Amino acid sequence: MIKLNNITKVYRTKTIETTALNDIDLHVPKGEFLSIMGPSGCGKSTLLNIIGLLDEPSGGTIRVDGQEVIKYASKATAKFRNEKLGFIFQSFHLIPDLNVIDNVELPLLYRNVSRKDRKEMAAIALESVGLANRKSHFPSQLSGGQKQRVAIARAIVGNPAIILADEPTGNLDSVMGDEVMEILTKLNKEEGTTIVMVTHDERMAKKTDRLIRLYDGSQVA
After folding, report:
1. Mind listing the pLDDT tens digit for each residue in 75-111?
2. Which CATH number fits domain 2-219: 3.30.2350.10, 3.30.70.250, 3.40.50.300, 3.40.50.620?
3. What's the alpha-carbon Rg for the chain, to the nearest Å?
4. Which of 7, 49, 180, 211 has its CA 20 to 30 A from that of 217?
């Protein structure tokens, strides 16, 4: 499902060169739940952004769902990203002026989905995360755990093959974190969704199929 070969990422200024990722080889088969761990600044989020086609590597090749990605800034890549990938962030990234169901349907706006179908698909996604009764609420009216469940509903509303989650439990207490992990695990086991998750929490990482570790931009385990 995901194949990275010899991926490097180097940030350059006039005076300094910083290597964020160094020669990463990573293959994630369809249906796997993979977690990525490592200290702050080790390249975890950079790697996730490259997998998600949000950032372009300095070297190496990437294939997602059988397609090699070459033109990162193209409309075709943006369309592919919208249809194949779902994103979950630590800080939720909900739009405060939109109610819950409008936040969830946002990815569908770029797919020529009718308003009626968008609402129906968003309602189904909210029901799957246990928030069917919150669709008219605004983010400010929700707890942290509820906000993250809305973010998960937004990520899955278009039935993506892959979900990329950056510290999805990082802003939550242990109880809420367990609830979010239960939803992600259910998506993985019952729907066959491939999930790649960055986390600092060893306990959450142990709930996944496989764990890799990064240190100073290199894979060490």
Report:
1. 888 888 888 999 998 889 999 999 999 999 999 998 8
2. 3.40.50.300
3. 17
4. 180
